[in-house]
């Protein structure tokens, strides 16, 4: 005997309850709850390092910053490829371009330039004394180092103005010591005689940096140059 079947309404909709009823209808359409669940499942399955499926368009500021960085890299590479003088010319040219002016404004004055030889001449001492070494500046130290390298036994003489009773003396340098100039060759700087040399000790009076000084100097001269040395003391 067949049993009687009792039908009840579910959710008042007159249909049957099902886990899949929200995702897909009878006509194959997906419900809103199913879309939401599918998105949640996709987020759960997505790996932390996985990129999004849809590429985002960069903001114009990001693109502008990247362009500036690329331009800076190019400029830096260009400067590295230059030598020091080329970079100097570029920087000077850029300065004039941006701030105005002309090249002459940037040139350093060379009116007061001095070489080491100029410094030695200005601070030279024929004989250094203890008081000369007080308050030493770098110029004086340079002149003193030069003086210490000289050979202070025999002098080299300039006798060109002997008739005026004016003589110039200096100490020998290394090349003259090696060649024997002033000892085995005549001590007159323009004479190369080797025969009949005589030794003279002269009281050399001179003025140096506004101060009168005197020193005994030794000379080795040939007969002609000895005559010039003693021209006023015959």
Walk me through the structure.
- It is a single chain.
- The protein is an alpha+beta fold and 234 residues long.
- The longest helix is centred in the N-terminal third of the chain and has 21 residues, at 60-80.
- Helix 4 (116-123) packs across helix 5 (138-148).
- Mean pLDDT is 80; it is low at 21-25.
- Among the domains are: 60-106, no CATH class; 150-233, no CATH class.
- The chain contains 7 helices and 4 strands, in the order αααααββαββα.
- One of its GO terms (molecular function) is phosphatase activity.
N-to-C SSE string, H for helix and E for strand: HHHHHEEHEEH
Q: Main β-sheet, in a few words?
A: 2 strands, antiparallel
Q: Find the count of extended strands (DSSP E, 2+ residues).
A: 4
Helical residues, percent: 25-40%
Unreliable runs, pLDDT <50, ≥5 residues?
A: 21-25
Look at the helices and sheets and give the structural class: alpha+beta
Spatial strand sequence of the major β-sheet:
1-2
Q: Quaternary arrangement of the chains shown?
A: single chain
Strand content: 5-15%
Span from first to last CA?
Answer: 176 Å
Mean pLDDT: 80
Rg (C-alpha, Å): 51 Å
Number of helices: 7
Please state the overall shape, judged from the principal axes of the Cα atoms: rod-shaped
């Amino acid at each position: 005997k067949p049993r009687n079947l009792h039908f009840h309404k579910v959710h008042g909709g007159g249909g049957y309850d099902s886990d899949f009823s929200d995702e897909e209808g009878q006509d194959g359409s997906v419900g809103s709850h199913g879309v939401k669940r599918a998105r949640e499942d996709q987020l759960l399955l997505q790996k932390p390092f996985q990129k999004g499926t849809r590429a985002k368009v960069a903001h114009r500021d990001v693109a502008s910053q990247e362009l500036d960085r690329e331009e800076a890299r190019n400029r830096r590479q260009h400067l590295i490829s230059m030598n020091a003088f080329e970079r100097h010319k570029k920087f000077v040219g850029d300065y004039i371009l941006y701030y105005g002016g002309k090249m002459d404004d940037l040139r350093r004055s060379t009116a007061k330039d001095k070489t080491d030889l100029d410094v030695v001449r200005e601070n030279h001492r024929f004989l250094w004394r203890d008081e000369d070494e007080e308050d030493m500046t770098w110029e004086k130290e340079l002149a003193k180092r030069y003086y210490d390298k000289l050979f202070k036994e025999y002098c080299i003489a300039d006798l060109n103005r002997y008739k005026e009773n004016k003589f110039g003396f200096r100490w020998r340098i290394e090349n003259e010591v090696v060649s024997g100039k002033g000892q085995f060759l005549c001590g007159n700087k323009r004479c190369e005689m080797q025969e009949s040399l005589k030794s003279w000790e002269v009281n050399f009076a001179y003025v140096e940096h506004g101060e009168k000084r005197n020193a005994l100097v030794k000379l080795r001269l040939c007969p002609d140059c000895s005559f010039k040395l003693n021209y006023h003391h015959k």
